[in-house]
Amino acid sequence: MSSAVEESNRRLLRARDAMDRRYAEPLDVRTLARIAHVSEAHFIRTFRATFGETPNRYLQRRRVERAMFLLRSGGRSVTDICMDVGFSSLGTFSRVFREIVGEPPSVYRRRGPLAPVPSCFAMAWLRPSSFGEARRE
Predict the structure, then answer these.
(1) Any residues with CB less than 8 A from the CB of 78 and at least 6 apart, and which?
(2) What pLDDT does residue 78 have?
(3) What's the CA gap between 10 and 68, in Å, rounded?
(4) Residue 78 and residue 106 in contact, taking contact as beta carbons nearer than 8 Å
């Protein structure tokens, strides 16, 4: 692998790490492209080629993963969880959640509380597969 490709991958990983850390904040492509030190169009293209999904879809999936954990680990309202994970609209949250998980948040919550395991294991176990998701965009 050439040093240019390695540097490009490092830049993309920096942006993806920022999405992982700051998923609840309003992140846009311009901000993420700035973190990666590339143009917006180049960032979207290379991110999708490298990770198999657009930056927007990756961020949505990360937010839904966190929401899945919160829905089954506490008694907070779906609206509160929606806002806490970075969505600004309950309708958008419900639509995206259903697309990724296959059922609405309220139905998912009815599965009951999570087993008493460390939260990192629970979140990994609940993580929806991104395989096939990128093809639908």
Answers:
(1) 71, 90, 93, 94, 105, 106, 109
(2) 96
(3) 29
(4) yes
| pLDDT at residue 61, rounded to an integer | 96
- The tokens for 110 are 């009815």
Asked if residues 74 and 113 have their Cβ atoms less than 8 Å apart, the reply is no
Average model confidence (pLDDT) for the chain? 87
- Tokens, residue 101: 């998980």
- Residue 37 CB neighbours (<10 A): 12
- What pLDDT does 117 receive? 64
Question: Token pair of 3, please?
Answer: 């040093």
Q: Is 52 helix (H, G, I), strand (E, B) or coil?
A: coil
Dist. CA 64–CA 81, nearest whole Å: 10
The tokens of 134 are what? 């990128």
Task: Name the stretches of the chain with pLDDT < 70.
Answer: 1, 114-117, 119, 121-127, 129-137
Using the structure block, give the residue that is written with the tokens 């597969």.
129
Task: Please say whether the dihedral angle defined by the alpha carbons of residues 81, 88, 93 and 68, taken in this order, is positive or negative.
Answer: negative
Distance CA(32)–CA(16), nearest Å, equals 8
